[in-house]
Amino acid sequence: MVLATVVTHQLLVVVVVVVVVVVDPARAGLSRGVVQYLLQCGAQRVVYVSCNAATQARDLQLLCGSGMFRLSSWACVDLFPQTDVAHVETVVVLNRV
């Protein structure tokens, strides 16, 4: 969402408000830099999709442990329900406190 656009003396300034961030990292999870970005960007909601529940739990501890986010909902999704292959993704929604 663009909050405001200001043109002053040939300089264009655009203020953007981050409302929702969706992350779907590799098995290694979020880097420290991404965690810091999520804490500082002002997003009101983070949707975190993961194929590795252990690294997701580690990252959620950092995000929720900061006191800035609260776990709102959580679900497991079987990507191949009609096969013998078990591949579950976990989807977590965090809301800013």
Structure summarized in a few sentences:
The chain has 97 residues and is an alpha+beta fold. 23% of the residues lie in helices and 43% in strands. The chain has helices at 32-40, 53-65; strands at 2-8, 11-16, 20-23, 45-50, 69-78, 88-96.
Secondary structure layout:
Layout: E1 2-8, E2 11-16, E3 20-23, H1 32-40, E4 45-50, H2 53-65, E5 69-78, E6 88-96
Parallel strand pairs: 3-4
Antiparallel strand pairs: 1-2, 4-6, 5-6
- SSE topology string: EEEHEHEE
Helix count equals 2
Secondary-structure-derived class: alpha+beta
Distance between the termini: 20 Å
**What is the radius of gyration?**
17 Å
Q: Give me the side-by-side strand order of the main sheet.
A: 3-4-6-5
Please tally the β strands and state the result: 6
Write down the overall mean pLDDT: 89
Description:
By secondary structure, the chain is of the alpha+beta class. It contains two helices and six strands; from the N terminus they run βββαβαββ. The chain has helices at residues 32-40, 53-65, and strands spanning 2-8, 11-16, 20-23, 45-50, 69-78, 88-96. A four-stranded mixed beta sheet has the order 3-4-6-5, with helices on one face. Strands 1-2 form a two-stranded antiparallel ribbon.
